[in-house]
Amino acid sequence: MSREDNISAQEALGAAVNAHDLDGIASHFAEDVIDHDPAPDQGGGRAGIRDFWSAMLTGFPDAAIEPATLVADDENVVVAYTFTGTHDGEFQGLEPTGRRIEVRGVQIGRFEDGVIAERWGSSDELGIMKQLGAA
Questions:
Q1: What is the pLDDT of residue 29?
Q2: Which of 134, 22, 18, 1 has its CA nearest to residue 77?
Q3: Contact call for residues 111 and 117 (beta carbons, < 8 A)
Q4: Which of helix, strand or coil describes residue 5?
Q5: DSSP 2
Q6: What is the pLDDT of residue 6?
Q7: Burial state string for 116-132 with b = 16 or more CB within 10 A and e = fewer than 16
Q8: Bridge-partner residues for 121, per DSSP?
Q9: What is the pLDDT of residue 104?
Q10: What confidence score (pLDDT) does residue 1 get?
Q11: Do residues 77 and 70 lie in contact, with contact meaning Cβ atoms separated by under 8 Å?
């Protein structure tokens, strides 16, 4: 796939997140995707990605991702983003606080055949917990 195709796939992934479309999110990852930076208790592969987003959307039902910068070559797409949401559902054992969070993150996706085959990422997990009053 071309650089432009991978950028389009990354943008479609962001749109699926913002639409809270779990199947759409999962469809942008290879079945056996390797996530080098999984969340706590996240399983492997596409199912693990889907479960991660299910937990995020349960904890933050109004979750949204806003890309700030995107850099790509023929195989990789790097996106720096801001994640926002209101903690209106259970998240990592924390009962809803009603608090609004805003954190930054970066994801690197290595694409094969239009889907992410490998993922590296970093989100401000400590920032989330501090904003929720848990750290």
A1: 98
A2: 1
A3: yes
A4: helix
A5: -
A6: 95
A7: bbbbebebbeebbeebb
A8: 107
A9: 97
A10: 78
A11: yes
